[in-house]
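DM from R.C. (forwarded with permission)

"hey, sorry to bug you on a friday — could you get me a structure for this? deadline for the figure draft is monday and I only need the backbone to look sensible"
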Amino acid sequence: MGKEPRLSIIIVNYNTGRLLDGCLSSVFESAPDADVEVFVVDNASSDDSLERISKFGRRLKLISNQENLGFARGCNKGLKESRGEYVLFLNPDTELMPEALTRMLGFMEANRRVGFAVPKIYLPDGKVQEDSIGPFPCILHVLFYWSSLGSIFPRLKERLFRKYSLTNEAFKVDWGTAACLMGRREILERLGGFDENYFMYCEDVDLCYRAQKMGVETYFYPGAEILHHRGKSHHNQKGIEDIKRRSLYYFFKKNRGLWYALSVMALTVLMASLKLVIVFPLASVARHSQRLQEALELYRFELRWHLKPQSISYVLGC
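My reply, with the result:
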């Protein structure tokens, strides 16, 4: 048998051909072949993804699914086939910056108590993706999101929504995004990988939540950097928003209980209704205000989603 790779990189793809091409190019530019194995788990793409990545040849290990299994199941299939001591889950719409892999591996090896690490993630406009880490979701986040309490209690808001754009030091976080999440194989195997009840979204939050209950720490490490073309891999935005909410409420029910999930739903309906009462008259007068029209559409969408029988049935039955 050959030498076990130091790192396994797992990329789950669904119709992101051009972005995947750029992602893999950045990976192979920074990954020494002898130490890294790269998996692409393709969820039955109908675009030119497979044709585009054929140029990478044997450097790439392809797992082709007959249907779209979602992100969590796709990652787990790659995890079962991989052999690396460390595992990096990487979105196809990302690009590694120089030395990102070397630095993340160095950080993990120098800090044995760290189970998972997420790098500093930049968006195409040069801004840092601040929501790539955060505290575990709770009802207070919903309250702050919908109300003006953040303006009244800025210090409390800062504690709830920690931002890292101004720091260059590593620090412990509750969770890190699986857009680029490095973990130790031994911990991933103890956790059983991602919970496959998540199609996508919140599976990374859930993974880190279960890890923390085991005493495993997740860290933000700004010494490594990547670029994230966020949103470019999704086309059905309304469908994505539906999946996001289903995943969030599954997380609440699984980890905090049914009544907690229902309380979050009720609070969201209440706050969205109050906001709609305030914004609707203003938006009717200022029809050319894009900001008001977008806010109006958001509140309407939240009310429609939370009051749909299908949404309520999902939360009760998930």
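R.C.: lifesaver. Residues 258-285 form the longest helix (28 residues).
me: no worries. The chain has two domains: 7-135+162-228, 237-317.
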